[in-house]
Inverse folding.
């Protein structure tokens, strides 16, 4: 490939597309902590209270027809940036995906839930994905999510990932 294209080695990859990469001899750690800090600053939440959970267990996300609407550009901007952040943060994927359902009919209650995710990120900003080298790795996951309590769709979802 070097004969056909002009290439040069610039060094080990440390930062690419808002993803920090720390490579060691035995492992690789991938995080988006710098990006998360920039998001907190961008949306004015760097001084906000942090939470150790992404959403309260007593909250049920629904359509909320009564509340006041919020800016579409602002809400979609927050959701879009959170979706990009899920590449390195599997702990927020389900909740961010749930919040995306309300982009067309976003209300103050939905914005409050999105801000809660950002406050959770503030508390867990250094989390990332850690991969060990030279170890046989098999990802096995199981989800048994009950959406019967979901007020918007009332669907049940069960999945197994191997």
């Amino acid at each position: 490939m070097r004969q056909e294209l002009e290439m040069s080695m610039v060094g080990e990859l440390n930062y690419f597309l808002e993803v920090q990469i720390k490579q060691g001899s035995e492992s690789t750690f991938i995080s988006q902590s710098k990006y998360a800090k920039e998001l907190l600053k961008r949306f004015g939440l760097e001084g906000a209270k942090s939470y150790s959970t992404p959403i309260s267990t007593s909250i049920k996300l629904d359509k909320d027809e009564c509340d006041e609407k919020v800016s579409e550009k602002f809400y979609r901007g927050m959701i879009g940036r959170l979706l990009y952040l899920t590449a390195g943060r599997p702990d927020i994927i389900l909740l961010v995906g749930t919040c995306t359902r309300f982009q067309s009919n976003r209300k103050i209650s939905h914005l409050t839930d999105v801000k809660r995710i950002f406050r959770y990120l503030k508390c867990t900003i250094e989390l990332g994905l850690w991969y060990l080298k030279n170890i046989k790795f098999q990802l096995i996951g199981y989800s048994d999510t009950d959406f019967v309590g979901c007020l918007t769709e009332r669907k049940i979802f069960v999945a197994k990932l191997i």
